[in-house]
Amino acid sequence: MALILLKLFLAHILGDFFLQPKKWVKDKEKKKLKSKWLYVHIAVHIALMLLLVWDFSYWLLILLVGISHFSIDALKLILQKKKTKRFYFFADQVFHVIAIFLITAAMFYDDVAPSLSISTSALLLVICLAFLTQPTSIIMKTIFSKWDISKYTEDNESLEDAGKYIGILERLLVFIFIIVGHWEAVGFLITAKSVFRFGDLTSTKERKLTEYILIGTLISFGIAIVVSLIFLNLKSYV
Questions:
Q1: How confident is the model at residue 99 (pLDDT cuts 50, 70, 90)?
Q2: Domain ranges (residues) in the chain
Q3: Which of 31, 84, 171, 196 is close enough to 224 for a disulfide, judged by CB 3.0 to 4.6 Å?
């Protein structure tokens, strides 16, 4: 059951964070259940699950997970308001994970013999690496949506989406350093980033921007460390 669960989780990450353009999200929030992209989004999820599981004997499991995904997304679109978007974003993700686990457990797939030759530990590694890229960036963007720092950065010249890619690279590096047993490299990475950021922070003389960058750095590193520890503890069980 562990392998089938990991494949379903991977399909969820890919479908929700990598294969869902912003225009789909905006259209769904505007038109709610009348948005065609809501149904395209569910179809993408089902297609991903079929592709990753690669065994049509599990069609009922995949269909039930697809239905649960639609129900959770629809409920979120109906209930969420502008002020509660962050809350419903995280609630939506939690309920998706719970639904996948409960539906799979209820179907009693104790002996899964997938046709794809991939180990559970390798799949767990792929999921962790994927989660630390776009999904974590979206999670952090959602967390920071309550603060508007545009007036503190309007005069700063920066590459488009540079901050996002820097965050992704630093999380992947932290993950790699930890799973290979080099925690000291994580400390070096934090120190190096602090040195590079020191000039920016002292030149702006804006306490709010300093706090914003510090919180973002700590959350980014914290998520990478937690994911690394989860991987190290789970790989011996899956």
A1: very high
A2: 2-115, 146-234
A3: 171
